[in-house]
Amino acid sequence: MTMPALFIAHGSPMLLADEPRVAGLAAWAKTLPRPKAVLMISAHWEERDLAIGATTPQPLIYDFYGFPEPLYQLKYPCPPAPELAGRVETLLAGVTKTRRDPTRGYDHGTYVPLLCCYPEADIPVLQIALPKVPPAELIRIGEALAPLREEGVMIIGSGYITHNMRAGFHQGPPRAWAAEFDAWIADAVVRKDAEALGNFETAAPGAKESLPTDEHFLPLLMAFGASLPYDEPIRFPIDGFEYGSFSRRSVQFG
Q1: Domains of the chain, each with CATH number or no CATH
Q2: Across the chain, which distance is largest between two alpha carbons, in Å?
Q3: What digits encode the pLDDT tens for the residues 30-79?
């Protein structure tokens, strides 16, 4: 069975206190085939080259500040995935530079969504970094990783399609620029328009306002790339906005 590839809008660690959102992610996960392993690409780990995280148990990284104390006590003792690390290196040989970072534990972009989707922490997980390469190259990297899906590996990008912390928070309808950008991205994803997505910075309406920095969006491009070899349905199991400019849109490829 070919595993789906996903993009999960994970928000802050306070997602775990939002019972409806946790329930929504848990319900989504129950509709998916159980993976043999998960390959996570989080918005919260960027490196010059594609780094491959720990393949032995390491402490979690509490990469957030000023949150309630219980969030700093979270645990996610899932099995490591050393064989998957080797496969990633093999698949990316000649595609992009890779290196090992054997002491780099999971950041909250990995364990927060996984606590919602797979709270038993019984599936092996490997996290890889976002390399600092052009968006079109991220799509190519994702495509190179696509064979993992036929080996029982679920590829998950974790971030936000829109992420503007500078715009402030409000409870009204989404800002026009966020809604336009989110809709444009959804349309390009459904059409599998790799060229458009690779040039989103200049092609998409509202790109500058929606993404003053792009790290939260880029994991979507790797998950999208992993869908390109397949003729498969594309779904948006979760959508909508929060705080006026943060898209909750999550994507399922396959």
Answers
A1: 5-253 (3.40.830.10)
A2: 48
A3: 999 999 999 999 999 999 999 999 999 999 999 999 999 999 999 999 99
